[in-house]
Design a protein that fits this description.
heterotrimer, A alpha+beta (about 100), B alpha+beta (about 500), C alpha/beta (about 500), B: about 500 residues, alpha+beta, Arc Repressor Mutant, subunit A, 3 domains, 3-stranded antiparallel beta sheet, 16 helices, elongated, C: about 500 residues, Amidase signature (AS) enzymes, 11-stranded mixed beta sheet
Amino acid sequence: MSTPSPKGRLTRDEVAHLAHLSRLAVSDEELELFAGQLAAVLDAVAQVGKADVADVAPTTHAVPMTNVMRPDVARPSLPRDVVLAGAPAAEDDRFRVPRILGEEA
Amino acid sequence: MSDTLVDFDEVLTRYEPVIGLETHVELGTASKMFCGCSTTFGAEPNTQTCPVCLGLPGSLPVVNAEAIESTIRIGLALGCRIASWSRFARKNYFYPDIPKGFQTSQYDEPLCTAGHLDVELDGETYRVEIERVHIEEDTGKNLHVGGSTGRIHGADHSLVDYNRAGIPLVEIVTRPIPGAGAKAPEVARAYVTELREILLALGVSEVRMEQGNLRSDVNTSLAPIGSLDWGTRTETKNVNSLRSVERSVRFEMRRQAAVLDAGERVVQETRHFHEDTGSTSSGRSKEEATDYRYFPEPDLVPIAPDEEWIEKLRAALPELPAARRARLREEWGLSDTEMAWIVNAGALGLVSDTVAAGATPADARKWWLGELARRANDSGVELTELAVTPEQVAELAGLVAAGTVNDQLARQALDGVLAGEGDPAAVVESRGLAVMGDSDELVAAVEAAIEGNPDVAEKVRSGKVQAIGALVGAVMKTTRGKADAATVKRMLEERLVSG
Amino acid sequence: MSADLTASTAADLSTALQAGDLSSVEVTRAYLDRIAATDGTIGAYLHVDAEAALQSAEAVDAARAKGEELGPLAGVPMALKDVVVTEGVPTTSGSKILEGWRPPYDATLAARLKAAGTVLLGKTNMDEFAMGSSTENSAYKVTRNPWDTDRIPGGSSGGSSAAVAGGLAPWAIGTDTGGSIRQPAAVTGLVGHKPTYGSVSRYGLIAFSSSLDQAGPMTRTVLDAALLHEAIAGHDPLDSTSIDSPVPVLAESARRGAEGDLAGLRVGVVTELGGDGHTDGYEPGVLARVAEAIALLEGMGAEVRQISCPAFDLALPAYYLIAPSEASSNLARFDGVRYGLRAGDDGSRDLDEVMALTREQGFGPEVKRRIILGTYALSSGYYDAYYGQAQKVRTLITRDFTSAWDDVDVLVSPTSPTVAWSIGSRVDDPIAMYAADLCTLPASLAGVPAISVPCGLSEGLPVGFQIMAPALADDRCYRVAAALEAAQDAARGHALLAGMATKENAPS
């Protein structure tokens, strides 16, 4: 684990990388603004590092639960016209998207 | 772009291959992993979707109990440790075929770990260690439009169908498999073959590879012989036939050897296998390493199988293929090699069912590996696709054993069965294929043969007994094969050979 | 029955409707009229469909006329925060990325309220994707506090708080991730309850932070809150985190609480939330009202003691790691492929570029900030130090609660350190904005129930009093809140809201 410095710095380049990972085409002005604001926020949130959490398990639910499952029963799906009604673009009963670059799946 | 390849045998003089497989299996549940949509194959696009599997805002997943049990059963069949605490995780990345912007999968808390699968190959056993078995969801399907080949490159745009999105998908990951040497390609194939048999025996999936029910990512690396390191691996994605698994390893070994021979480094990347050429090509590795930002799925609670649940599932496991083969081999009195032929022909179930229907193991084996295999081969179909049932084959064998038909007539009867004329006995009846007994008609045919071939008859009388074959043949011809050759021979001998 | 239907409690409306003294159309029209008259100023609603509301109201009236058996809430109007998915009714979560989306399904709570015969007036404004404490992050409009229209109505459920406080709905549903029901209720003089995590279905709530989000009531009285809560609570097989156990009796607890007997109740005042040595950032007026409320509880027989919960000091940093992390993943589905906005698809750009442009144009700055922060906190190499560590801090906070429950029945604190601030005064300072959630975050992180109930005014603006209880003991929140409300109303001579001095809603 690489430990962030106590003063969690986020450079402009890092913010740009994170924005790309998040698929946000942020503008240069936003990059500048966010880098500054996020540095301040990171300073604040980095305080969690002060807690002594040796042997502490993470919490996720107020009432611990396990094995919530449903029986394997098929139920009606939505009608296709309803499914495609909200689509920004559709063609041949499918959702249409611009050409995909990147890895072939 | 064509790769330089080293001759396969030559590869092994300098390098030791290590392989590994990640196999994805679509489970045969009635409904999807996290919602009630049907999983039926081949439905009209986007007709098996709902708010959950479309990732509509606000929708939430609920785990399919059957999928969890199937995963645990696969784990048990592979000798895995079943986790007492297991969680789902979100694998975050953007792609149009994943409707939520993440795939719900498992990360560091899978359901099953540390198993193995023994693979038999030419009398040797290779133990494949299983790293983990986990459950996740399948993606939708992208259709690429506008390119010349229907491939992604050069396409103008793509169309997405989410029917497949959310179908339960089990991933079975092996540990690296070293030490197979020249057998590495075959071991890879044999592993997937055996895994498929197990999945079929468990009844958890139809495992129809042509429908993409089972797809393997095949890892291959080469290390110089004697090296302590394992070399850089490539991952050939979504290989979806047994033959292709073997060919992809073979190709990668030959390609990587050429790269290493040239003093270059193998690039760690995903590659794609091409059925037509038997080659792989680079999957255009992304310029940045993917960071999936896994974290525990907060919309689902942990799966914590207790001992009672696991033991109940274990007790209900069917006989597994290896045990079944051993038992049948014993019962049928076959050698390992004979058994292997049956298995390799994909005829084990057919032979077994034929024996169960009353045929002797020898007859059942003879029919399926002989005449029926020939017919299947001639028509270019699988044995299981022939229009004849094990029961009908057993009946046919019974007719031969009873002397009702001879082998040649039996083949004619089979023609009738395959043509849909009914069961063998009915075909024998309707086509009039029954063997002639010691009847007047046969006596007349025998005497006609002697009279019609006086020279041959004389040879036989004078002691050239082997010449009798020509007379038998003549009788068979006049009776159009319906006579029993042995009977005919006996009758000729009675008349020509003083005894 | 108040002469002004739009100042009435929902419980009174329910009684009058059941008695036949009032028709649903009458009350629905009264609210629609008031919305038409004043929402231009208040800006509580993103969507109002008067025709649909009147149709539902007519249907209830017709059913009642035919003698059909109806539930107690049948015919009572209500409003839903726009984070609640409603079939055929526009649902945006306050974001441009969902503009125009008409969902093909109902959230479980929307379906339950529909089945109960309530009449949907409209969908209320909110901070985009519930990220904010002032509703200024809405992509659509500013919502104003009816007490002072230059001030914020709290957030993120600020449309709901403004609607109910301003007489534009008798009650409303809000959602609370870090305080988004309680804080807006506090700054508008309402009752707002965040239920035990898992006790109200999240199915159909557009997710912000899945492990924290809960929906709950925002109302004018404690009894109303209990009634609305009962109508939406209970196990839902569509939500895997939904608790499969009976909902405690809430309205009855509120009624008993209002009798004013708290003898034997052990109340813990949380030191870390405005107590000695922890008053930085708290307005003296807020602390004074809270102290008076505590004295009132004592006067009704409660035993009060100080309780220290040291891990609460880390609630803010833990929250601002967990919520953005989960949000970064929850908001990944807004990619312009299946629904909502798509930007830049002019044939020249590939899918990745179109996705990035869509999200850039569809999300506001606060959402983008949190997505980037969450993406960072989940990145390999940082996960353990940030998200992982924060989830463990959460356990420490839960432990503080658990050990407090050994000594006390409920914990109390201010709901928010300040009264409503002026619109625009904190928008450029995320840290100052986040501080508004200081007191509400511990209960969110531990998943325990917490209610905010008015405890008077400071500088003429409402102050909220928070009561927290153990998981599944929501009834305790209602009991104590009702006692406090009754005692204060009695001392004041009227409900706090009735004292609101605005042009539209003069005290009666």
